[in-house]
Amino acid sequence: MRVLVACEFSGVVRDAFINRGHDAISCDLMPTIVTGPHYEGDVMDIIDEPWDLMIAHPPCTYLAQSGVRWLRKANGTIDLKRWEAMEKAAEFFLTLYNSDIPRICIENPIMHGFAKDAIKIKPTQCIQPYEYGNGERKATYLWLRNLPCLVPTDIVEGRFPSTHKMGSGANRSRARSITYAGIAAAMADQWGGGGG
């Protein structure tokens, strides 16, 4: 099976599929941090290739509930640049979701109301890392097309927030965007159809 993992620099999901015999490639504007098949550039350059499955992690900066407060300036007026960035992020999300790939998963955190209004598609499922062997909380929503919901594989204790061990700074958002290995393994096992 040919698998495109869009907006992934970590290689975690890509490698989970490769380890199960699939032809998988990650794609991101940044280089991959783990050696493996990776397209460094715009996913739109390769999205029309004959993929069987796409798992996409579009940037959530302007869509996530945690960023809604930045849509307004301190004086209460709308930050037009931020609002425009939110609309572009929603458009990109929908472009990925509506692409001509038979099976699609789009992953993003909890969205704020304005993003939900712009996307107009409800998520299919909410998953947590602690359901897949990692003792952390980080509600992650999946928008699935022609895929079944993921089934928890290893529910564990120790449910502390995923930000618990992370300091502030530029690398925080990058670190938070990396998919947990247990979730990637579940995707490959449950959506991989038994190997390449």
Task: Record the SSE blueprint.
Blueprint: E1 2-6, H1 12-18, E2 23-28, E3 38-40, E4 53-56, H2 80-97, E5 103-108, H3 113-119, E6 125-127, E7 136-137, E8 140-145, E9 160-161, H4 170-176, H5 181-191
Parallel strand pairs: 1-2, 1-4, 2-3, 4-5, 7-9
Antiparallel strand pairs: 5-8, 6-8
Helix pairs in contact: 1-5
Number of helices: 5
Largest sheet: 7 strands, mixed
Distance between the amino and carboxyl termini: 5 Å
Classify the secondary structure makeup into a structural class. alpha/beta
CATH-assigned fold name: Rossmann fold
CATH class: Alpha Beta
Q: Output mean pLDDT.
A: 88
Strand tally, please? 9
Give me the strand/helix succession. EHEEEHEHEEEEHH
CATH architecture: 3-Layer(aba) Sandwich
Instruction: Specify Rg, calculated over alpha carbons.
Output: 17 Å
Strand content: 15-25%
The helix content is: 25-40%
Low-pLDDT parts are none
The backbone outline, from C-alpha atoms, is: globular
Strand order across the largest sheet: 3-2-1-4-5-8-6
Number of domains: 1
